[in-house]
Write a structure and sequence with these properties.
Length: 282
């Protein structure tokens, strides 16, 4: 008699084809540790080989997630086989149930498939700056069903993956060059327009967050109701914090205008009141 063999073959739960023994539990633990080791080694290899740039880092994260799902699916399939449950039997016996569940989980399945598409296609990866639902944020995590987007207010938004596949989104990180932005402002009538243009270009060129090339330019846009309307166009790589860049520009332009005696007007209306008596006398 082999006491070790007897212990490993000792049945803890036995029902029809289901047979959970001490040996199957030990084997489960061994397979689990092996799966964790494989995932650890693959992640280390991806970090060394693939993560040369931020874009490749995001792609390696996506590939690792796909590989991880595959490993855990294989792990559960092997464990079911070890304890005597055939995967084909499990699928066949629960087919009717799966149809009913599938009808109720169409959106979840849609998100799941969309997550696979995103991970394989790479149109959106970790670290990308995107605009979705008029909201700008940084992609922090892409999971199999949802993605986490960090907004400029440091709020994490959970976005279903189907929105990143079906909806129109802007991926600022996939641009070949910095995007162009515009700052609109007006000055009072009578202001020297050439001087206004000079001040605007000078303040924009001083800002470290604004690209030197292409060169910023100023457009005299219109003669408004209460002001001479200008637009300042510039390019910047700081997409995520562009509101801060625009705010700094407004402070600097306002100080420069005050120093030169140039005012920014506010809307005003002249109201003439004619009394009924005066109207009859006329």
């Amino acid at each position: 008699m082999n006491p070790i063999k007897d212990i490993l073959e000792f049945s803890l739960i036995h029902y029809k084809s289901l047979n959970i023994t001490v040996g199957s539990i030990v084997l489960t633990v061994i397979i689990y540790l092996m799966a964790k080791l494989v995932l650890f080694l693959v992640k280390r290899i991806m970090v060394r080989v693939l993560e040369k740039t931020e874009h490749e880092k995001g792609r390696s994260v996506a590939l690792f997630q796909i590989f991880r799902y595959f490993i855990w699916f294989a792990f559960f399939a092997i464990i079911l086989r070890v304890i005597g449950i055939e995967l084909t039997f499990l699928v066949a016996s629960s087919a009717a149930l799966m149809v009913g569940v599938g009808l109720g989980l169409q959106n979840v399945f849609n998100d799941f498939v969309s997550g696979i598409i995103i991970l394989f296609e790479g149109s959106v990866i970790k670290g990308d700056i995107i605009t979705v639902d008029d909201m700008i944020g940084e992609v922090k995590i892409i999971k199999i069903r949802t993605s986490e987007i960090l907004t400029r207010n440091n709020i994490t938004i959970i976005v279903p993956n189907h929105k990143l596949v079906i909806d129109n989104i802007i991926n600022w990180s996939h641009l070949n060059k910095s995007p162009r932005f515009v700052l609109k402002l007006g000055v009072a009538y009578g202001s020297p327009t050439k001087k206004v243009k000079e001040i605007l270009l000078e303040q924009v060129s001083r800002n470290a967050e604004i690209d030197k090339q292409p060169k910023p330019f100023v457009r005299f846009n219109d003669f408004g109701d209460s002001s001479l309307d200008f637009e300042v166009f510039f390019w910047s790589e700081n997409i995520f914090r562009i509101d801060d860049v625009l705010s700094d520009l407004r402070f600097e332009i306002d100080d420069a205008f005050r120093a030169e005696g140039i005012t920014i007007p506010f809307p005003q209306r002249d109201l003439h009141i004619v009394s009924g008596v005066d109207k009859l006398n006329s």
